[in-house]
Amino acid sequence: MKRAPHDDERLLAHIRRELEAGADDLDELTRARLGAARRRAVDAARPAGGPLGEVLAVARHLPAWGLAALAALTLLAFLLWRPAAPPPAEPLTLLEDLELLGAAEDPEFYRDLDFYLWLDDVAQRS
Questions:
Q1: For residues 47 and 56, is the Cβ–Cβ distance under 8 A?
Q2: How far is Cα 118 from Cα 96, in angstroms, rounded to an integer?
Q3: What is the pLDDT of residue 41?
Q4: Are 49 and 56 spatial neighbours (Cβ–Cβ below 8 Å)?
Q5: Higher pLDDT residue, 96 or 73?
Q6: Share of the chain above pLDDT 90, in %
Q7: Confidence of residue 109 (pLDDT cuts 50, 70, 90)
Q8: Between the CA of residue 71 and those of 49, 58, 64, 101, what are the distances in Å?
Q9: Which is more confidently placed, 91 or 70?
Q10: d(CA 52, CA 48)
Q11: Residues 44-68: pLDDT tens digits?
C-alpha cells in the first residue's frame, strides 16, 4: 500500500520534532562527543590535498591493474599529444646577419626575403 505524500511529510515532521526534543535532553558531554565525532567523519570524508587529493582518493579504490592501466594511458597521451619539435633552421653566417642588420631596404623587402634568397639560389645554380 502506497502512502500519500502529505502522510510522509507529517511522519518526517514528527520524527524531526522527536529527535530535536531528544537532542535538547542530552547533557553537554554527550553533545561535545557527538560534535567531535561529526567533525572527524566530515574530515575523513573530505579528500586532502586539493585536486590531487581527489584523484588519489579515487585511485585508492582502484585495483592495482587499474592503476597500471591509468599510468600507461597517461604516458601514451603525453607521448602522442606532445607538440613536435620544429625542424632545425639553417644557421645564418655572421656576415649574412650583419648584412641583414645593416641593409637600408624597406620592410617590404624582408617580408619577401625567402623569395629573394630562393631566386638567388636558382640564379647561382644556372
A1: yes
A2: 15
A3: 85
A4: yes
A5: 73
A6: 0
A7: low
A8: 20, 14, 11, 51
A9: 70
A10: 8
A11: 776 565 666 666 666 666 677 777 8
φ/ψ of residue 92, rounded to 5: -85, 145
- Return the CA Rg of the chain: 37
Asked if residues 116 and 109 have their Cβ atoms less than 8 Å apart, the reply is yes
| Pairwise CA distance, residues 105 & 99, whole Å | 11
**What is the structure's pLDDT at 51?**
63
User: Can you tell me which residue has the cell 590535498?
Assistant: 49
Planar angle of CA 69, 75, 78, nearest 5 degrees = 140
Q: How far apart are CA 64 and CA 22, in angstroms?
A: 47
* Sequence letter at residue 36: A
Tell me the three-class secondary structure of the chain, residue by residue. CCCCHHHHHHHHHHHHHHHHHHHHCCCHHHHHHHHHHHHHHHHHHCCCCHHHHHHHHHHCCCCHHHHHHHHHHHHHHHHHCCCCCCCCCCCCCHHHHHHHHHCCCCHHHHHCHHHHHHHHHHHHHC
